[in-house]
């Protein structure tokens, strides 16, 4: 394991970092997280990720122990401790858990949350992902009902996602596409989903019960930059049959073209022009923002 890990103020090599077994993030899965990556050694869209982290934490009545500027300094210190990055860029994962306490669901037993920052070298998807595209699988694992564990909470409890992805792996696919309890397309196990129809990039509505990805929202702005309409729509599995293009979005995978769903080829079977245009615009905007980074926000 490469990199460095911050745990409640202590930074250690990745293979030496520890969290007590009585931490409720371990025994109950109570916690939230954010994943970031750097461009030009700067965490992209840091303020947006932190706003979502705070929203997720609030949904769990979980206090965030520091402001955004202090957390950013801890991230920077951990990046420095992680040492040389072969690609020059870092993968960053911020986790906040309920903390250590007796084995009870009573939150008064865990007054001090645990803050963990994992930093390791960023490893980009191989070139063939962007040049040739990937295959995904439509799985029968449903996305969590919003009245259960709401997908809008970026929770450390990823069992729903893991089961879906493991199902996809058995078919040789690289991502799992899930439906909600109404039979609508929702999102992928580790990414948001888009299809292109008539030159317009469409993604399932937030009401489909999904995690509103930071990259997903950012893409609406990128679309304006490059002249591509990006919108939300209620989508169903039948819409997969008529899509001209598809792609998935995430912090670590940018826009990854999808050229096959199960055994059905998408469009020409190659990454399409709208996907390529959005990907180019995404990378340009990401690099522009991190070359002239803005100060970290103040929890607004």
Q: How would you characterize the largest beta sheet? A: 9 strands, mixed
| Intertermini distance | 35 Å
Strand fraction equals 25-35%
Please give the radius of gyration in angstroms. 19 Å
Mean pLDDT: 96
So, CATH architecture of the largest domain? Alpha-Beta Barrel
Classify the oligomer: single chain
What is the helix content?
A: 25-40%
**Poorly predicted regions:** none
Strand element count: 15
User: Structural class of the helices, strands and pairings?
Assistant: alpha+beta
- Helix and strand sequence: EEHEEHHEEHEHEEEEHEEEEH
Please, how many domains? 2
Q: Number of helix segments?
A: 7
CATH topology of the largest domain: D-amino Acid Aminotransferase, Chain A, domain 2
Instruction: Let me know the CATH homologous superfamily of the largest domain.
Output: D-amino Acid Aminotransferase, subunit A, domain 2
Q: Mind telling me the CATH class of the largest domain?
A: Alpha Beta
- What general form does the structure show? globular
What does this structure look like?
27% of the residues lie in helices and 26% in strands. It has 300 residues and is an alpha+beta fold. It has 2 domains: 4-123, Aminotransferase class 4, branched-chain amino acid transferase, N-terminal domain (D-amino Acid Aminotransferase, Chain A, domain 1, 2-Layer Sandwich); 127-287, Alpha-Beta Barrel (D-amino Acid Aminotransferase, Chain A, domain 2). Strands 7, 8, 9, 10, 11, 12, 13, 14 and 15 form a 9-stranded mixed beta sheet that branches. Helix 6 (214-226) crosses helix 7 (273-291). It is globular.
């Amino acid at each position: 394991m490469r990199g460095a890990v911050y745990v409640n103020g202590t930074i250690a090599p990745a293979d030496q970092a520890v969290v007590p077994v009585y931490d409720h993030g371990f025994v109950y899965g109570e916690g939230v997280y954010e994943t970031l990556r750097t461009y030009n050694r700067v965490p992209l869209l840091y303020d947006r990720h932190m706003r979502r982290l705070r929203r997720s934490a609030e949904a769990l009545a979980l206090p965030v122990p520091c402001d955004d500027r202090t957390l950013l300094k801890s991230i920077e210190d951990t990046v420095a401790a992680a040492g040389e990055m072969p690609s020059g860029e870092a993968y960053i994962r911020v986790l906040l858990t309920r903390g250590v306490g007796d084995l009870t669901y009573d939150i008064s037993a865990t007054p001090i949350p645990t803050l963990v920052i994992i930093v390791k070298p960023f490893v980009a998807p191989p070139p063939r992902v962007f040049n040739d595209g990937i295959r995904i699988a439509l799985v029968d694992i449903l996305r969590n009902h919003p009245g259960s564990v709401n997908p809008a909470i970026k929770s450390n409890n990823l069992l729903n996602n893991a089961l879906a992805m493991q199902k996809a792996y058995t078919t040789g696919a690289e991502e799992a596409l899930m439906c909600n309890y109404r039979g609508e397309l929702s999102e992928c196990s580790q990414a948001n989903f888009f299809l292109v129809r008539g030159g317009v990039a469409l993604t399932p509505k937030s009401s489909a019960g999904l995690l509103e990805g930071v990259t997903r929202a950012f893409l609406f702005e990128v679309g304006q930059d490059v002249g591509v309409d990006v919108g939300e729509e209620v989508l169903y599995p039948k819409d997969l049959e008529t899509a001209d293009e598809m792609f998935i979005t995430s912090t670590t995978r940018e826009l990854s073209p999808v050229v096959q769903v199960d055994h059905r080829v998408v469009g020409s079977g190659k990454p399409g022009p709208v996907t390529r245009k959005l990907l180019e615009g995404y990378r340009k905007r990401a690099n522009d923002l991190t070359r002239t980074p803005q100060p970290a926000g103040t929890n607004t």
